[in-house]
Amino acid sequence: xxxxxxxxxxxxxxxxxxxxxxxxxxxxxxxxxxxxxxxxxxxxxxxxxxxxxxxxxxxxxxxxxxxxxxxxxxxxxxxxxxxxxxxxxxxxxxxxxxxxxxxxxxxxxxxxxxxxxxxxxxxxxxxxxxxxxxxxxxxxxxxxxxxxxxxxxxxxxxxxxxxxxxxxxxxxxxxxxxxxxxxxxxxxxxxxxxxxxxxxxxxxxxxxxxxxxxxxxxxxxxxxxxxxxxxxxxxxxxxxxxxxxxxxxxxxxxxxxxxxxxxxxxxxxxxxxxxxxxxxxxxxxxxxxxxxxxxxxxxxxxxxxxxxxxxxxxxxxxxxxxx
Length: 323
Hints:
Blueprint: E1 12-17, E2 21-27, E3 33-40, H1 45-60, E4 68-72, E5 75-76, E6 82-85, E7 92-95, H2 97-104, E8 108-112, H3 113-124, E9 132-138, E10 142-148, E11 151-153, H4 189-201, H5 209-216, H6 223-231, H7 235-259, E12 263-267, H8 278-287, E13 299-302, H9 309-318
Parallel strand pairs: 1-4, 4-8, 9-12, 12-13
Antiparallel strand pairs: 1-2, 2-3, 5-6, 6-7, 9-10, 10-11
Helix pairs in contact: 3-9, 4-6, 4-7, 6-7, 7-8
């Protein structure tokens, strides 16, 4: 064995497969990331599974690991063996856990990406001090999870809760899930881009930096570009962020109405910019619940693990008994 290869039995690999990127990390028993690799998420079944095998091989070449956790943005069966449907991924009604266990030669734990991220925040973040709390993950899309008394709530068929695909606009923007008007089409990383393009198309603030950027390089209008320009004070980018905040607040209000949690943890890649929109989103949430001003509402906090929560959480699940 090479001298630089770790031999800790507590090391596991956590892989977070999102709609944009496949991120894999070697994680120790305390939840610390030791090593990390990232690839674009492939669009076909064979390419996706080849990418998983490839990235695990790279990390195993540098570390001795005991198991692999796979966090997937899609519907997982209640027994956590198969992926029923994943809006941004090619898997459809496919048995994944056992097949990848055979391919990788390591035990594989399969988990919904939001559940995995919530588990990371349950162990290492604000979820430690809450009895009933919800996780609201904002990335390429929206993921959700519910934790009660230290256990992940999965629902009867393993798909609960699905915040991102609640219909909020009848006949609204098309969604990769096949529906129209889903919440994640209005408040997610990809929604920032969609809203920016819609605002530009209507001629709003044509001299803004965001509009000028679009006309010179349309492909450069991304969620990250909107956030960066908003931080620079661009008026159109700030209006896009304000629209995002309104929709997020309405989504949080739905979570409050249905689940009545004591805490909502905001996670996902977009959460790292929560200083731009969280105050406005919480105000919108407070105004859109029944009995506003006359009932306790969940406190809303940003998770401590950011975009790494899914990798860390599923790696910890892979190294322990399922919660």
